[in-house]
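Researcher: We're teaching a course module on how sequence relates to structure. For the next exercise, students receive a sequence and then see the predicted structure as tokens, so they can try to spot secondary structure elements on their own. Here is the exercise chain.
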Amino acid sequence: MRVLIVGCGGAGRLHAKILKSLGFTIFGDDLDKAQQKSFCEENDATPYNGEDVDIVVVAVPPNAHKEIVLKYLEANKWVVCEKPFALTGDECDAMIVASKNNGKLTIAESSTYSEPAKNGPMLLAKTGRPCIWNAHYMTQYRPQSWVNQIGGGAFFEGGIHMVTTAKYLFGTSVKWSSSVRCYRGEEYADSGTIIIDYLSGDALHLSIFWGTEGCFTGESQIYNAGSSLIGPKTCELFGPFDNNIAMWSDILNDKIIVTTMMARNSVTDIERCLKESWR
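Model: And here is the predicted structure for the students to work with:
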């Protein structure tokens, strides 16, 4: 099979490595032609020049997802879109509508395809219901541009993993709240906590810290403080952890865990949390 990877940065290279190992013929496309050139050299890929392909992987920053996804859906291609699906529910809706008429749309949410996430229902039986998923971490490095306009900030870019997995585990959300900060003075939240309650009675408490200069210069330690399911019976350590290989195996075998509506509703969960926040 032939795959076009649009976006030759870190996410694109990750997908290329896996698809190359699976025997795909890879094409690369990026506005940054120097990055495209190094991507193609690294992955034995061909610079894209309109060739026919079977799958298009959209690995550009999320603020550019809609335009590129719509372009290839309208060309009747199978499009695999990186997380987060978009930065607004309206953009997600536009892509979902187009996918029903043109081509096929799949969301690449590697964390939800990991073994800890797949084992979530079994762990819920052990902890008892309703439970709280308490997840909190600090990251050491994020490019400055990904904190603000192109990446949507810490909760869209980093928190979407947990929010989507919680949607898979708990279902319909009913209440959204948060306390977040913009320590770096940007438009988007870089640190704080969001809380989502679900119709099932369960809850996600998610805390993220991307905020100080040390996170960007590498001077701050990495604190990965933990993630656990806390229920009336017991507490269980719980990921999830990225597993891109398992994700692609499931995608290619039509075992879709993250539906487009699940991905869309995860985006709107974050939108609602941040809308209700005090800063």
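Model: If you want an answer key for the exercise: Residues 2-110 form a domain with the Rossmann fold fold (CATH 3.40.50.720). The chain is about 40% helix and 25% strand.
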